[in-house]
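I'm curious: can you give me some protein's one-letter sequence along with its backbone structure tokens because I've never seen that pairing?
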Amino acid sequence: MEKTGNVRSSLLKLLWHRIGEDDIPGLSAQLAYFFLLSLFPLLIVLFTLLPYLPIQQPDMLGIIRDFAPVEAMDLIEKNVKEIMNHRNGGLLSFGIIGTIWSASNGINAIVRALNKAYNVKESRSFIVSRGVAILLTFGMIFVFILAIVLPVFGKEIGLFLFSKFGYTSEFIKLWNALSWLVSAIILFLMFTGLYWIAPNVKLRCRSSFPGAIFATIGWIISSIGLSFYVGNFSNYSLTYGSIGAIIVLMIWLYISAFIIIIGGEINAFYSERNRTNC
């Protein structure tokens, strides 16, 4: 018990030191900027895939709607719909290549941030490092689609089975509770893959678990907390007008970036500790 307490104390001291040394607030601001540049291209790719998937358009943004502040969500939905209404060409157009490249900018920024957490330089060539970012972007798209498909089909299958026994209302209550667990598991898998593959360090998959657990729990709590605060205690649109939604979106992306970087720092701490013990 005492040893565990010492480890936690060392971790907290390291994180406090790294926040200043690595300028995590400034790095989070940079990451939030790249997230903003990547968000809409990523959503455009997902919406372009809609005709090839058994998913309805309202379900596509459902997983984001569960966590994002209302004002930020309204901004995202409005702009995505406007872009898609004026977009020409299909999935196999040259435009989609540039869109995927733009969407990978956010992942590429995460790679640099995680390399800084591990105190390593990017020794991979530009093609390899960018290829990793694009591969992870495709991975995020797959996870995003999985996060949509599983709840949609799971609910339909459950309703069909439980309706046979007359327990439809009971199942809906159970499903609403389980859907949060499903979302948390999918987020955990996404963060695990990100922390495992992105840094320019050879890591075991399980070494990514501490940061992935922190990022999953931290992101869910902070997103719901921000959404509750904006919805009940602050009205950015009333104060700042039409730009209020952009401010809320940037705050959400900044908090998300901060949590992702801290998760990388946690993994770096345990990785260094394990090497020292060996």
Observations:
- DSSP finds eleven helices and no strands in the chain.
- The radius of gyration is 20 Å.
- The longest helix spans residues 126-164.
